[in-house]
Write a structure and sequence with these properties.
Elements: H1 8-16, E1 40-42, E2 53-55, H2 56-63, E3 66-73, E4 81-87, E5 98-104, E6 111-116, E7 121-127, H3 131-138, E8 149-156, H4 161-164, H5 168-189, E9 193-197, H6 202-209, E10 215-224, E11 229-231, H7 239-242, H8 245-248, H9 260-271, E12 286-287, E13 296-298, H10 310-316, H11 331-338, E14 353-360, E15 369-374, E16 379-384, H12 388-392, E17 408-415, H13 416-423, H14 426-448, E18 452-456, H15 461-468, E19 474-483, E20 490-494
Parallel strand pairs: 2-11, 12-14
Antiparallel strand pairs: 1-7, 3-4, 3-20, 5-6, 5-8, 6-7, 8-10, 9-10, 13-16, 14-15, 14-17, 15-16, 17-19, 18-19
Helix pairs in contact: 3-6, 5-14, 11-14, 13-14
Length: 496
């Protein structure tokens, strides 16, 4: 059980910005929660997008499934290839602490399911119609009400703690934001109306999907369509068996890795950030509109580019590690990368301040330098022309990353104290999920025009804050390197 801390939010902030040397680096453990003795719905590995239905197999594969096996040469040397399974989106350290549960309203197969991305299958958690219970959890506003398809995104609180210690909860929240953004974009590809829900009833949601205290509910996505029906692959599972699932399912404890002190604190932070009802509305998440100085660069507002479809997008994510080319990109491409990164229902005003800073290099028509992005006017405010790669290189521990070959180094920052003032202990959780949403949009924008991405977490937060000269309570939450990547050291095997 978690401890009660009188001021856990501020106490956690003093711990989660630990020096980089305290992080433990181990081999990737890409496992997923497994349900035993429960009815399964095997999903197809081929992605077939149909006109009048939403194929759940395709939706899950595109949003969180394993999509390819990379055989890679990380050090660009002969006979030094390694194998690594990759999913449709990135995760801190490749650990993927999040789990997906799905409420599907379908005449014969209505129920709550758990998705296993490694086996690409659904496990039935509860069978029946839970529409009224879900409405009470997420509220009945707008598109949320009576949604026939609802995704619950949770996190195994101890899954990445062995590696990142106190930093692990921040990474879990960032990962959650990326997943929520990907789900939203994938649904949009099927012409569904979606809503990202962060102001849900924690206690009721945990009870609904039968998760214990080591697993936390972090985000929900609702989806509905007036023209498409939801289709699951047919399964002959016995409904009488499904009634016993609550007693039968369990997680293989041999796959858990714990760092007890950090885990206890993280569980306490999560449990103290719960809403016991949906009366605590999160109204505003958005851009910090504080004053800017220096001249501004206008970006093209209407840019046409041959954007890739979803399958091409997934294929382009198969870019190898951190090898950027240093090739120049256009101002139009930069405009597309930044387009609509703050435009989602979750972001609308400045009560939840996030900022996006950019170090730009080799952009046609744009001087190399450090800028702040102004989303309301789609322009950039010039800050200085300092050599940011030189200043941060000792804080970016990645030997095979050449910072001078990266076109866009994006720093997403946030203000923890303003988040706390807005909604208390839940502020830290939501601030980092919001940063993950912004990151997810940046990554998808970049990949969709054929460029490569590399999100980065392995830095000392306090040192990076000092290096970037961030003011007051503003901290760097995540870094993303964007640009033209080198594909020459990669062999990829598709899994769809």
């Amino acid at each position: 059980m978690s401890k009660e801390y009188s001021n856990i939010y501020k106490e956690y902030l003093s711990k989660c910005h630990s020096p980089l040397s305290e992080a433990k680096f181990h081999a990737q453990r890409n496992w997923s929660k497994i349900y035993y003795n429960t009815p399964k719905v095997p999903l197809k590995h081929n992605i077939n997008i149909e006109d009048n239905t939403i194929n759940v197999s395709a939706l899950l594969k595109l949003s969180y499934g394993q999509t390819h096996l990379d055989v890679v040469n990380r050090k660009m040397q002969d006979k030094n290839y390694t194998q690594k399974f990759r999913r449709a989106l990135p995760s801190g350290g490749g650990l993927y602490p999040n789990e997906l549960y799905i409420w599907i309203k379908n005449d014969s197969q209505s129920g709550i399911y758990h998705y296993n991305p490694i086996g690409h299958e659904l496990s039935l958690v509860k069978q029946g119609d839970f529409q009224s219970e879900i409405n009470s959890i997420i509220g009945q506003e707008g598109s949320r009400h009576n949604s026939p398809l609802v995704f619950f995104v949770t996190s195994i609180l101890d899954k990445n703690t062995y590696k990142y210690k106190y930093l692990s909860y921040r990474i879990q929240c960032l990962d959650t934001g990326v997943i929520l953004q990907r789900l939203k974009e994938t649904f949009n590809g099927f012409n569904f109306t979606t809503d990202i829900v962060l102001d849900f009833d924690d206690l009721k949601s945990k009870e609904l999907i039968n998760i214990d205290h080591n697993e936390g509910m972090l985000g929900i996505v609702t989806a509905k369509s007036n023209t498409k029906e939801i289709r699951l692959p047919k399964s002959s599972f016995n409904s009488r068996i499904s009634k016993q699932i609550k007693e039968e399912n369990h997680l293989d404890n041999n796959l858990k890795y714990k760092e007890s002190d950090a885990l206890d604190f993280i569980e306490s932070l999560h449990h103290n950030s719960k809403f016991k009802s949906i009366t605590n509305k999160i109204r505003n998440l958005g851009f910090d509109r504080s004053e800017t100085s220096g001249y501004c660069i206008e970006l093209p507002k209407r840019v046409t580019e041959n954007e890739k479809d979803m399958l091409e997008y997934i294929d382009n994510r198969k870019t190898i590690f951190h090898h950027f080319m240093g090739t120049m990109i256009t101002k139009n491409q930069l405009s597309l990368i930044l387009s609509k990164v703050f435009q989602t229902k979750t972001f609308n005003t400045n009560e939840f301040p996030l900022n996006l800073y950019l170090y730009l290099r080799d952009i046609e028509g744009v001087s190399n330098g450090f800028y702040r992005y102004i989303p309301s006017e789609h322009k950039m405010s010039y800050i200085n022309n300092e050599d940011i790669p030189e200043k941060i290189r000792d804080n970016v521990i990645q030997p095979d990353l050449d910072l001078y070959k990266v076109n866009v180094t994006a720093f997403i920052t946030g203000n923890h104290n303003k988040a706390y003032a807005s909604i208390g202990n839940r502020g830290y959780r939501i601030l980092n999920i919001a940063a993950g949403l912004l990151l997810g949009k940046l990554l998808s924008n970049t990949n969709s025009i054929g460029l490569g991405t590399y999100p980065f977490l392995a830095y000392d937060v306090n040192l990076m804050k000092e290096t970037l000269d961030l003011q007051n309570d503003e901290y760097p939450l995540i870094i993303a390197f964007l640009g033209v990547k080198n594909q020459n050291s990669r062999l990829t095997f598709q899994m769809y």
